From TrEMBL:
Coiled coil: none annotated. Pfam families: Ion_trans_2. This is Ion channel. InterPro entries: K_chnl_dom. The keyword Cell inner membrane does not apply. Keywords: Membrane, Transmembrane, Transmembrane helix. Residues 153-223 form the Potassium channel domain. The chain crosses the membrane at residues 21-43, 49-68, 75-97, 103-124, 136-159, 179-197, 209-228. It comes from Rhodanobacter caeni.
Length: 238
């Protein structure tokens, strides 16, 4: 009996977490993005690992597409961008076609910007801050960081040597290094040893700093303000 009770409790807990993820899809997208942030350093060194990297990217793309469909975005638009991006990435990895890399990076950046824009529209659509919108704020931040990372990849392919670092300054920067740079710029923390050294790379870096500041000032601060207003309305009047 105790064993059955324990299994029942475990099943109920799993169903509860599943219900939370279904009710808050932004939380699922955010968790997958953060998991990718920790997973990428372990899978980007070998060809087989890069294939897994691409497969994981497909999962992220599918979650982002599902989020776009739940918001006011057009699912067919996101799919029309994501499918060629996945195809270019797969062909480039399996057939060793480096010429496809700039197309893959450009399409990936476009897709993530579109998904982030749809989530921002979703968060600004009403005058109340829901729990899912709070998760969407974090998911949008990671989507924007990913999008600029792909822009940095594109810039590095078209202009080799546009990014330098303390370790192997003349070599190409890895995905993890460029993602770290993107998060540093988006959050305006200013930490890190990866720096843009050409005018085009610096222009992209400046644009990301501007987007990061405006996102926090306009979108995140609005959600916080709506949350505070809702809590004040719930408090009984004295």
């Amino acid at each position: 009996m105790r064993t059955n009770d324990g299994n029942t409790v475990s099943s109920l807990r799993r169903l509860r977490w599943l219900a939370i993820l279904v009710r808050h899809p932004s939380a699922a997208l955010l968790l997958v993005q953060l998991a990718g942030l920790l997973l990428y350093p372990f899978i980007e060194q070998t060809r087989a690992a890069r294939v897994l990297f691409g497969a994981f990217g497909v999962v992220v793309l599918m979650l982002a597409i599902s989020m776009v469909q739940r918001t006011r975005g057009r699912g067919w638009i996101s799919a029309a961008i994501a499918v060629p991006a996945v195809v270019c990435n797969a062909m480039g990895l399996m057939l060793d076609m480096p010429a496809l890399k700039p197309w893959w990076a450009a399409l990936e950046a476009l897709f993530y910007f579109y998904a982030a824009g749809c989530l921002i529209a979703y968060m600004l659509a009403d005058r109340r801050a829901t729990t899912d919108e709070m998760f969407a704020a974090g998911a949008t931040f990671t989507l924007l960081a990913w999008a600029f990372t792909y822009l940095f990849v594109l810039c590095q392919v078209l202009q080799p040597g546009c990014f330098a670092a303390a370790v192997n300054p003349a070599g190409p920067r890895s995905w993890t290094e460029l993602l770290f740079l993107s998060f540093a710029l988006m959050s305006s923390t200013g930490i890190g040893d990866v720096i843009p050294v050409t005018v085009h790379a610096r222009a992209l870096a400046s644009l990301e700093m501007f987007v990061g500041v405006m996102y926090i000032a306009l979108v995140v601060s609005r959600l916080i303000g709506l949350s505070v207003s809702r809590e004040e309305e719930r408090e009984p009047r004295r």
